[in-house]
TrEMBL record:
Keywords, ordered alphabetically: Fatty acid metabolism, Isomerase, Lipid degradation, Lipid metabolism, Lyase, Multifunctional enzyme, NAD, Oxidoreductase, Peroxisome
Reaction catalyzed: a (3S)-3-hydroxyacyl-CoA + NAD(+) = a 3-oxoacyl-CoA + NADH + H(+)
Domain 3-hydroxyacyl-CoA dehydrogenase NAD binding: 315-490
Region of interest called Disordered, as start-end residue ranges on this chain: 1-24
Pfam families named among the record's database cross-references: 3HCDH (PF00725), 3HCDH_N (PF02737), ECH_1 (PF00378)
GO terms for MF: (3S)-3-hydroxyacyl-CoA dehydrogenase (NAD+) activity; enoyl-CoA hydratase activity; isomerase activity; NAD+ binding
Source organism of the structure: Sinorhizobium fredii (strain NBRC 101917 / NGR234)
Protein name, UniProt field: Enoyl-CoA hydratase/isomerase/3-hydroxyacyl-CoA dehydrogenase
Compartment(s) where it occurs, according to its Swiss-Prot or TrEMBL record: Peroxisome
Predominant place of localization: other
Domain 3-hydroxyacyl-CoA dehydrogenase C-terminal stretches: 495-586
Length: 710
């Protein structure tokens, strides 16, 4: 803690020693008349490091002892209020002073503290603000308790003070979902006393002076919780459980709020602390922490440090089908003007209609206003004319998955666009090197692989060719940031990272059928593991024809492609829901999968030479998951992925792998790679999987995958 002179001139500190003997520069005190302004300055986000906690504790002590000070404003330098815990301290033994003690000390301060919030007051930051007697905020600020997203509950009284401030309904919403809320909503809910339009600190000081004239409200610890309506807790438990699915933290957070409503303050605080400590060491918290760090690392790849991305202020999409319309919607959602190019006028109209349907659907579901949907469409120009692309910064091609069609599109794009424009293909399986062959300035070309529906799915695989320049790769990462997506760099191979692992998933799923499992049993086991859908249901939804087309291409290249049952289904034109049957039968107008006798007969015929086994949920999951991990290790070994955590991000954000499992690679490491190797050896000995690859065996021996980014 340091003291600065009074803003109006001479230092007014009654304790000059604090300047010379306490050089904690992360927390400083300035006096403006009888109001002290305590400023936290711990860039980049004023995280609650040990130094900040100590500085704040010293500040409370010093200001309590200072007879000139009547009130205290707590504010932060830089772009935000205290945005949460110090992630550098995650997983390490906590060092004093502990946050709950600090918050309690601020709450017991002799002078009223006013939290002056700009940016975000999240987690521990918001708990500090709840320790203050008042909270004021800029209009753009937000507050929240996002701990459940890391598999935790708030640990410094958030679940106990929040219902005392704003009632149980608001507390349950905020604590169990973890979503931050804006200052105006927070003000309406009573979380913030006033919104300050102009200078935050000046406004907070004025606010502090006015409250000095009135009786102070009770500290939150001394307030009671308003009674909830009958049936409230049962209803809350039902809806939180439905949303959380298998995640533990949301229901535990609900239990904390309930305890806060039903027990005295100290009992509730002890219960919250106990819950926090129990969850901190849980497998789910470790998995969610891993994903949190993986996501942070993904947006700033070290290999691009210092590279300035090409600017992207406008975009075009070629092809307005499923993917093109979704990509255009994502670009519009990010505020970029979009030109949509199709092959003829009728296709332009269909493409625009696809796009309109996306926005209208969002408006119907209440995700955006009708005006916003109209505004999104007003920013789109549909055309067949490449001349409209002369000034565009980024073009994403999403035409048919056909090499010749794509090459022709890029030949025209190379001629029509600026030499600096970024030209991207959304191909799923074609080789981007071959798509780009012969275009002028191939340094501007790369793969940007979106996932369906592109306006929703978070993953963006970024696939450079040998010629792609670093500033174009960096533009891919910058685009992901603009679109609020998770970028993962992938090398060129059949299916990049995600679809290459998906192929293994499907091979394993068929091996299971050939050795005695049913489609329904396999799907149920994978759902029980936490996936939103099993592999067969997913194929029926997406259509079996896409993978069949890709297998045909692979076989034409002389590669082997194992899908004896899927091949038979496609030959029988069972392409999935769209053809009334695939791995399951469907009644017209009903998407409920029904076990199919036709499929059972095909499986029985194909399985004649296979040994039958008894399968149960766990062994089914092992038979699918460990080969996926093995493929992940191969993907690392051949450089298709640069970081093991990138593989986890691909599966989580592109394929619905449960976040709370941490992704397949994290899950395998937590389970024990030596056990995974043994399981693969056992499966391989029965012809049910490939044997473990060298990198996986080496990683098992060394206790984990080496990750160059950590
Ligand atoms: P789609 O068949 O729904 O749409 C393709 C569109 O491209 C059609 O509207 C067609 O009129 C248009 N088109 C064809 N040739 C054109 C040309 N020369 N100029 C302008 N427009 C032309 O196909 P979808 O599913 O949108 O796939 C597009 C691309 O995205 C493919 O490369 C596919 O592999 C890839 N992809 C597809 C995913 C999916 O889940 N459907 C996921 C990720 C990538």
């Amino acid at each position: 803690m340091s003291r600065r002179p009074d803003r109006q001139g001479a230092a007014q500190s009654s304790d000059p020693r604090s300047r010379s003997e306490n050089p904690n520069m992360t927390v400083s005190i300035e006096q403006i008349g009888e109001v002290a302004v305590v400023t936290v300055d711990n860039p980049p986000v004023n995280a609650l490091s040990q130094a900040v906690r100590q500085g704040l504790l010293d500040a409370v002590e010093a200001l309590d002892a200072d007879p000139f000070v009547k009130a205290v404003v707590l504010t932060c330098a830089g772009r935000t209020f205290i945005a949460g815990a110090d992630v550098g301290e995650f997983g390490k033994p906590p060092t004093p002073p502990h946050l709950p003690d600090l918050v309690a000390r601020i709450e017991r301060a002799k002078k009223p503290w006013v939290a002056a919030i700009h940016g975000s007051a999240l987690g521990g930051g918001f708990e500090v603000a709840l320790g203050c007697r008042f909270r004021v905020a800029t209009a753009s600020a937000s507050v929240g308790l996002p701990e459940v997203r890391l598999g935790l509950v708030p640990g410094a009284g958030g679940t106990v003070r929040l219902p005392r401030l704003a009632g149980v309904e608001t507390a349950v919403d905020m604590v169990t979902a973890g979503a931050p809320i804006g200052a105006r909503t927070a003000c309406e809910a009573g979380l913030v006393d006033t919104v300050i339009e102009d200078d935050l600190v000046a406004g907070a000081v004025t606010f502090a002076r006015t409250v000095l004239d009135r009786p102070l409200p009770d500290a939150l610890r001394d307030r009671s919780v308003a009674a909830s309506s009958a049936g409230f807790w049962d209803a809350a438990a039902g809806s939180v459980a439905a949303r959380a699915k298998r995640e533990e933290a949301p229901l535990r957070a609900l239990a904390c709020v309930r305890r806060a409503a039903e027990a005295d303050f100290e009992t509730a605080i002890a219960f919250e602390r106990e819950t926090f400590l129990a969850l901190r060491g849980s497998a789910q918290a470790a998995a969610l922490r891993h994903v949190f760090f993986a996501e942070r690392a993904a947006t700033r790849p070290p290999e691009l440090a210092g590279v300035i991305p090409r600017t992207i202020g406008s975009a075009a999409v070629i092809g307005g089908g499923t993917m093109g319309a979704g990509i255009a919607a994502a670009l519009r959602d990010a505020g970029l003007p979009v030109v949509l190019v199709e092959r003829d006028d009728g296709a332009v109209e269909r493409g625009l209609a696809n796009l309109r349907a996306i926005f209208d659907g969002a408006a119907k579901r209440g995700r955006m206003s009708a005006d916003a949907a109209a505004e999104r469409m007003a920013g789109v120009i549909g055309t067949t004319d490449y001349a409209a692309l002369a000034d565009i910064d980024l073009v994403v091609e999403a035409v048919f998955e056909d090499l010749d069609v794509k090459r022709e599109v890029f030949r025209r794009l190379a001629a029509a666009c600026r030499a600096e424009a970024v030209l991207a293909t959304n191909t799923s399986y074609l080789d981007p090197e071959r798509i780009a062959e012969g275009i002028s300035r191939p340094d501007r070309f790369l793969g940007l692989h979106f996932f369906s529906p592109a306006q929703v799915m978070k993953l963006l695989e970024i696939v450079p060719t040998k010629a792609t320049s670093p500033d174009v790769i960096a533009a891919g990462f910058a685009l992901a940031r603009i679109l609020n997506k998770i970028p993962v760099r992938a090398g060129i191979c059949d299916g990049f990272i995600g679809n290459r692992i998906l192929k293994v998933t499907r091979v394993q799923a068929e091996r299971l059928l050939l050795s005695g499992a049913t489609p329904a049993a396999v799907d149920a086991a994978m759902r029980a593991f936490g996936l939103p859908m099993g592999p067969f249901e997913a194929q029926d939804l997406g259509g079996l024809d896409i993978a069949a087309f890709q297998r045909k291409a692979a076989r034409a290249r002389g590669e082997k492609s194992f899908a004896p049952i899927a091949d038979r289904l496609c030959a029988a034109r069972r392409f999935g829901q769209k053809s009334g049957g695939g791995w399951y039968d469907y009644e017209p107008g009903d998407r409920t999968p029904r076990p199919s006798d036709v499929v059972a007969a095909i499986i029985a015929e194909e399985a004649k030479s296979w040994l039958r086994r008894d399968w149960h949920d766990d062994s089914i999951v092992d038979c699918i998951l460990w080969p996926m991990v093995n493929e992940g290790a191969r993907i690392l070994a051949d450089g298709t992925a640069l970081r093991v955590s990138d593989i986890d991000l691909v599966k989580i954000h592109g394929y619905g792998f449960p976040r709370w499992r941490g992704g397949p690679m994290h899950y395998a490491q937590a389970y024990g790679l030596d056990k995974v190797v043994d399981a693969l050896d056992a499966l391989a000995s029965e012809g049910l999987a490939d044997p473990p690859c060298d990198l996986l065996i080496a990683a098992a021996r060394h206790g984990g995958f080496a990750d160059p980014s950590r």
